[in-house]
């Protein structure tokens, strides 16, 4: 039970931090997210643990990735990435669609480079095997 309470506090603190970063009041976020002011306050204080649907509404109000909130809430595992993917996901000036397109392009370049690297080393390995 303590772990659930910790997750509730963690997600609440994360939402508060994101709200403060966006310079949005609790009242403004409650309107943007379509969530009552008292309920949002309880979430931020860790008294309530929001559902995935409520997290999605809050993410939309904050203009951040719902995935980021799901990870913080323990609904999703931390996505594998690195500094580039983390930066893209954290960018508040991009829409979710733009972020996904950038991530797809970035990953396709990485995959292409891995395939080229593998192709370049394979003939070398085959010739060594013949010797």
From TrEMBL:
Leader sequence segment: none
Region (Disordered): 112-131
Key word Transferase present: no
InterPro entries given in the database record: Cro/C1-type_HTH (IPR001387), Lambda_DNA-bd_dom_sf (IPR010982), TransReg_Diox_bact_type (IPR050807)
Alphabetical list of Gene3D superfamilies matching this protein: lambda repressor-like DNA-binding domains
Transmembrane residue ranges: none
Domain HTH cro/C1-type: 15-69
UniProt keyword terms in alphabetical order: DNA-binding
Keyword Repeat annotated: no
Annotated SMART domains: HTH_XRE
Record protein name field: Helix-turn-helix domain-containing protein
